[in-house]
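Folded chain entry
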Amino acid sequence: MKASAFVYPWDVDGDPAAPELIAGLGVEQVTLASAYHSTRALTPRHPRHRIVTAEYAAVLYPPGDRWAGRGLRPYPAGRWAPGNAYGRAADALAAAGLEVHTWVVLAHNSRLGAEHPDTSVVNAYGDRYPWAPCVAQPATRAYLVDLAAEAAVRPGAHGTELESLGWYGLAHLHAHDKTAGVGLGDAGQYLMSLCFCPSCRAGYGDRGLDADALAAAVREALEPLWRCTADDEGWPTVEKLLGEDTAAATRAWRDTAARTLQEEAVSAVRAAAPDGFQVLLHADPVTYHCGANAGVDPAHILSVADGVVVPCTGGTALLAPFAGQARAGTVLAANLTVVSGMGGSPGTLAADAARARADGATELRLYHAGLASDGDLAAVREALSAR
């Protein structure tokens, strides 16, 4: 199985040894961030730094002329990835014999929400989520589609992986996050992620729901979850708490908004890309799930994109719904964490990869070559050499 390692530009830019080290792992490809959210990252081997603080969501290359005069536009990175850091890293990795694909984070941007608060998801209590742009708003959708096309199709790239191309909600590792005091589960996360911005309120209305009454119903439905007096069985619990018809109407609105955005973004990337350019989405096969791995309908998304990247660190169960819809040439990439300190298990990579292959995976994604220790990378090298 073809394997690709995730990498940040700052892992490579300024470190002449990095490209050969990554190529020496046995991977054929790197998935290199070209647009990424704020983060604090370890760089355990870089000769100039050990910690990189990316202060806000940014593109890691100079943004193009298409953004001139627009209110919503990407922010160029600061000192953590100056100038065309992506381009310098991509060139160095390609020179080491690695195929470079872009890694594009989309609907996850705290600075956008801080400077343009009207773009954010608004929950049933009126709280805004500045990290979560509402993907139903026309201006936000136009921004995300153009960002997908520009950040995906960088010079020399052979493909892209689009992350968070869908709804983002409550669940988010925000700065000094302290939201785990009550375990909300799938149902609570869904209810707390329903958006009540003007666009979504109109969308609910188009499906026969009064937005004010819906917000009140959501708040009432959440009460037993706040008190931890309700069992959370996922979607059946949402239906029980909101009523089946109301729950279905909210999901229909959100599913339509996400699906059409995914179609538009993939179409824009294809229009900007050369022939043979591969387009994958980071995806979850449950449409009402929110986050970096966007909730999708497997049959639909595999008719739109070339494949998906599926989180498999906790097991490979999420592969099956995609495998059942895959066609010849579909890419089903199992995403496995290989950083021990972040819950990964590089020592079991060979067994995990074999299990993923048995469950339908055609490729591997390894998170993350820049963050992993030397010991973790040695285990990766050993596992990949046994393929």
